[in-house]
Design brief:
heterodimer, B: 159 residues, alpha/beta, Nucleotidyltransferase, domain 5, two-stranded antiparallel sheet, 3 helices
Chain lengths: 145, 159
């Protein structure tokens, strides 16, 4: 008996729509990825307020200070206390002065944890005032509820 | 001469496997790093270091004084506005501010108007301070924000 050899055809599915969708998803997430979040710190949970709105333009010469729940101050990834903060602020001010600006032109953005002691935040402000800084921004989460 | 049918071009299959692998890796990366961001804003406080802070006080424009007391756990114990006790009610604080300064401030230019000095216990939780600042700064009327006091400063920290 003659046996006919069967030629199996390789099943091919059309991948085009899937690749289209996957590229669309990648484009979506790439656009939405927020690089500005590098300013945030996981240890700081901001308090909320209904009155604040995101600033229309970025603050000039920002110095971002994170104040954690236990009063630790984080500036540029380094940890400070109220006693040592003047060293960190001095470094920031040296950069600002090198650009021909005065400390009064800088904006100190205070991102304090909602449960931190208010006195710790006041101490941070006092140390910054000693360094001739005078503009402060208390950063708060927008409350839309 | 025998002419071959040119339409019978050999179908070339591009191997998509490696590209799809990379694309899925990228997709997983972006999905995992995706985070819904809550919008943030600022309360601006302009506090130059006064050279005569502890000395003579300019009594022509005395700031409103807001005193916030805390219990041992840091929770708000009492609010006092210019010696007026208000319990722990930020609504009452807002009404008192409106009564003291009037509701006519929205038309004023930014940076003008009354000033408030916030004097808190050291251990008071910061979120209560923000609640107080929210109450004295203004209120929402629909989509509009009615501004009350824009100049805010802190008293010396109490140890």
């Amino acid at each position: 008996m003659r046996v006919v050899s069967k030629k199996y055809e390789m099943a091919e599915c059309d991948l085009t729509p899937m690749i289209d969708m996957v590229f669309q998803l990648i484009a979506f997430f790439m656009v939405l990825i927020n690089f500005a979040q590098t300013e945030a710190n996981d240890r700081v949970v901001l308090p909320k307020s209904v009155l604040v709105k995101p600033p229309e333009e970025a603050l000039e010469f920002p110095i971002v200070l994170h104040v954690t729940q236990d009063g630790e101050i984080i500036l540029g990834g380094e940890s400070f206390t109220t006693d040592t903060l003047r060293i960190g602020l001095g470094r920031e001010l040296a950069v600002i002065r090198a650009e021909g600006k005065s400390p009064a032109d800088a904006n100190v953005i205070i991102r304090a944890h909602k449960d931190t002691a208010a006195g710790d935040v006041q101490e941070v402000i006092r140390v910054a005032q000693d360094q001739e800084l005078e503009r402060f921004a208390l950063r708060v989460k927008e409350d839309r509820t | 001469m025998k002419v071959r049918n040119r339409n019978e071009a050999i179908k070339q299959d591009v191997n998509m496997t490696s590209m799809i692998d990379i694309v899925f890796l990228l997709l997983i990366f972006f999905v995992m790093s995706f985070k819904i961001v809550e919008m943030e804003g600022d309360f601006s406080v302009r506090m130059p270091l006064a050279s005569d802070q502890s000395g003579a006080i300019d009594d022509t424009e005395l700031p409103l004084k807001l005193r916030l007391r805390a219990d041992v756990s840091g929770k708000l114990a009492s609010i006092q506005m210019n010696e007026i006790p208000l319990g722990v009610d930020f609504g009452a604080l807002q009404n008192t501010v409106i009564g003291l300064i009037g509701a006519a401030s929205p038309g004023e230019e930014s940076g003008q108007g009354p000033e408030i000095e916030i004097d808190t216990d050291f251990n008071l939780k910061y979120e209560h301070v923000i609640e107080a600042i929210t109450a004295v700064s203004g209120y929402k009327e629909g989509d509009q924000t009615v501004k009350l006091i824009e100049k805010i400063k802190f008293a010396k920290p109490r140890r």
